[in-house]
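To close the section, here is one more complete example, presented without commentary so you can practise reading it yourself. The ligand is iron/sulfur cluster.
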Amino acid sequence: MRDMIAQINIDYDLCQDPLVCRGCLTVCPTVVFVCGPTKIWKFRETDTKEYKVVARYIDKCSGCGDCEKACPTGALKLGFISRAELRDRFRAERAAKLAAQQIQE
Ligand code: SF4
Ligand code: SF4
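Output:
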């Protein structure tokens, strides 16, 4: 298990009101989640629909699974990926990005 890294996916179609729910924010013992506005307008209060919860401090995750259990809508999914798989994924993403840049040049 030590070689595995936690990954959290949130389906924002199912997580529509995190400010009211706060399930994952409240239950996580290592304070992995943060909730904030995605858009800010000058001189205008941010619409509560513009708030999103994200797993900002995923490196602090112990993998306990409490957030997934606490999520009332099934929006939050916890998974694990091996370091080798994560490294391969980053490499593939970087190679694809470089290839796309070369096509543009
Ligand atoms: S699995 Fe546990 S430690 Fe990790 S984000 Fe969820 S509640 Fe927090
Ligand atoms: S517990 Fe689920 S529905 Fe509630 S804020 Fe977290 S992700 Fe959204």
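Once you have examined the tokens, check your reading against these statements. Residues 2 and 53 are 26 Å apart (CA to CA). The beta strands are 4-10, 34-37, 51-54, 76-82.
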